[in-house]
Design a protein that fits this description.
Helices cover 27% and strands 12% of the residues. The protein has 129 residues and is an alpha+beta fold. The strands form two sheets. Strands 1-4 form a two-stranded antiparallel ribbon. It has a two-stranded antiparallel sheet with strand order 2-3. InterPro entries: Cyt_P450, Cyt_P450_B, Cyt_P450_CS, Cyt_P450_sf, Cytochrome_P450_3A.
Length: 129
């Protein structure tokens, strides 16, 4: 269960969608934040902006906090996290992707020893073209 929350948090905080936005065409007139939209208009929805919108989360969305999905944000708005899209257009491989992430994380935890890297060092360098 905790590993699932790690993966969910990783996907939400790293903004992992391969497609970072979706385009939808309005089927009827509507209004959004005071802007009138007409039937047939195209609307671009940026996943990053939705993922980081603090109105949808109880815990700061900019922080990597896997436990959020166990506690405060367990019942988050289903539209607040669109890592794999949504509805019938959602990514067909999302279950496989989650399984692969869980497998990789599990294997890393089994076979790799992680140590504190110590004080952060900033190494300056020159870039050339």
């Amino acid at each position: 269960m905790f590993l699932s929350n790690e993966v969910q948090s990783l996907l939400s905080t790293t903004h992992a969608p391969v497609v970072d936005c979706i385009l939808r065409t309005l089927l009827k007139d509507d209004e959004f934040n005071g802007v009138k939209l007409r039937k047939g208009d195209s609307v671009l929805i940026a996943f990053y902006d939705v993922h980081m919108d603090e109105r949808y989360w109880n815990v700061n969305p900019h922080e990597f906090r896997p436990e959020r999905f166990l506690n405060e944000d367990k019942n988050h708005n289903p539209y607040a996290l669109g890592t794999f899209g949504g509805g019938y257009r959602a990514c067909a491989g999302q279950d496989l992707a989650r399984l692969e992430l869980k497998t990789i994380i599990t294997r890393l935890m089994q076979y790799v020893t992680f140590v504190d890297g110590g004080e952060e060092k900033i190494v300056a360098g020159k870039y050339s073209v």
